[in-house]
Amino acid sequence: MSTNAGLVSSSTVGFPPTSDVSNRSLRSNFDVIEIDKKTAAPFIEKWHYSHIVPTGRNVFFGGYINEELYCVAVYGSGSNNNQHSYLARTTHKPVTEDNLMELRRLCRVGEKGTTEVPLTRFLKICHTILKREHKVSFVVSFSDPAYNHTGGIYKAANFQHLGKTNAEWRYVDEDGQIVHRRTMNHYSWRHSLTEVQMAQKLFKYEVKMPGKDRWFLEL
Hints:
Elements: H1 21-29, E1 30-35, H2 37-47, E2 58-65, E3 68-76, H3 83-91, E4 100-108, H4 119-133, E5 138-143, H5 152-156, E6 160-164, E7 168-173, E8 178-179, H6 181-190, H7 195-202, E9 203-209, E10 213-218
Parallel strand pairs: 4-5
Antiparallel strand pairs: 1-2, 2-3, 3-4, 5-10, 6-10, 7-8, 7-9
Helix pairs in contact: 6-7
């Protein structure tokens, strides 16, 4: 990888040796590296169903095929500051705030025929780098049934299903788009309005959304 802009790490994890010709081709053409937010943002805004780049301190990974960005994963602390405590109690594992990251976004080019590299392989490489470079031992993620996500990618990547989160109330705007309350609170703060004032100004009504499925992986 010599020409991609926005690289913050030159660390690249290749595929394991194999006698299969097609896999050798993938190994020579597919690179996974840490990238910066500026590089990841337009990709996430185009290919992730939320079209929103998460805020806060995050680690961004890009998977490149022939030096073209093919998939992106974003890991960070998540919005629940007590997530590590819940996971430690539930799994009886030594999960702490420092050794846990949440997989907050995962997306790839969605055009037909662009599935040369399975996302499970991409995740495996990301997790190798997280464990080696960032001392991460555990990963948690969530699949949202409201967007028809069943968590199949997490099952395939050997995540453990740990039940569901509680149902949540969210706002619906004039275009019928669902807006998370955290986004609403952020808007309220930026415009110096209360949540109620912002809701009356921008949104039509609230809707109760089902809980998300929680997925957990020990690296």
